[in-house]
Amino acid sequence: MKPYTLVNRYIFKELIPPFVINLVFFMFIFLMSEILDITDMIVNYQVNLSVFFLMIVYSMPYFLVYIIPMSVMMSILLTFLRMSADNEIVALKAGGVSLYGLIPPVLLFAACGFLITVAMAGWGMPWGKSAYEKTAMEVVRSNFNIGMSEGRFNDDFAGLTFYVNNVDMKTRELNDVLIQDSRQSQTSSTIIAPKGDLLKGNDDYTFVIRLYDGVISQVEPGRGGAHATNFKTYDIRLDIAGSGTNMGSRRKDEKEMCFSELREYIKTAENRDKRYYSVLLELHRKFSIPFACIAMGLLALPLGVMSVSARKSAGLGMGLLCFLLYYLLLSAGTVLGESGRFHPAIGLWAPNGIMGVLGLYMLVKTAKDEPVGLQSGFAFAVGRIRGFLAGRTKP
């Protein structure tokens, strides 16, 4: 077996354990924010644990699109930092293996991450997003009367906040109802009624709160006017599906579309409005974010293969800084792409281009054993900061 083949297999195998550890770690962090929302739904609507775990599973493809590139970069960085610290890189160079000879296993590993992320972005995320929304609406629909908890402000519906002092779960009668309605931008209404009923609407995803013998106080913030109106009966329609009369008519979010649906919408769109640019942006995002596995992977290789004099913490800190810079550029590109000021391809692919060029520059410099200004500058800045903090902590 050729030496290069042994080296490639060894490096590829060494990349897997840190990748799994980083994947689990980042997944745990990302899921924490989602678990809070899911837990709140469980408490409010009293759903069982099976639904809880299902909603976590449905959330995972969306997070994995961002987590996999992060894990790929960090696994490559940590692997080569360890190999540098154990003088394995020096041993490989002494055996005739150049830095360029270490690229094939890194590219293969990054390409695997790219393909998995593309699958998650193109098919996993639309499936998970659609299933999550469907499950959430089903939970609210089947347990909506439970969601009308006594003595609690409920703001689950956009522009509506309601408070019910007493609820009869059997008859669905409401007592002492307070509703803040700000669905109209120019008018804010406060509705107070001593009694009300929770009624079923025209379909399974629509409810009506019918209030009796109450008063509506309306305020117009822009004009400064206010007036009150008494009523005998007043209906407030609550649409769980968000729009339309049933769940099937709800317009798909661009994140719920697969490749073919995105391309079909772009092809048939009559107007280049905000919706058009959002869909075009999502199509490019499904490829640009997965490609970060390759761009950031090439950058992580020279960051990991550092000179003996460089600190390990400097390489790790530099890697985290580069990843933060990538997502800042990606966020800026997303905003510019959605506004239509730049083509979405520019905003979403520019961060990959910048990180890829930076990685190739550092790779060539490191292969020639030439100092890389970015690494030495960052190490110097870290050393100065640590020295400053150490001086501040002295008595």
Automatic annotation (TrEMBL):
Species the sequence originates in: Desulfosalsimonas propionicica
GO process annotations (BP): lipopolysaccharide transport; transmembrane transport
Residue ranges of the TM segments: 12-32, 52-81, 102-123, 287-308, 315-336, 342-364
NCBIfam families per the UniProt record, alphabetical: LptF_YjgP
Recorded topology in the membrane: Multi-pass membrane protein
GO cellular component, one term: ATP-binding cassette (ABC) transporter complex
Classification via PANTHER family: SLR0882 PROTEIN-RELATED, YJGP_YJGQ FAMILY PERMEASE
Signal sequence segment: none
Keyword Transmembrane among record annotations: yes
Name the record gives this protein: Lipopolysaccharide export system permease protein
InterPro entries noted in UniProt: LptF (IPR030922), LptG/LptF_permease (IPR005495)
Key words of the record: Cell membrane, Membrane, Transmembrane, Transmembrane helix
Top-level taxon of origin: Bacteria
Subcellular localization: Cell membrane
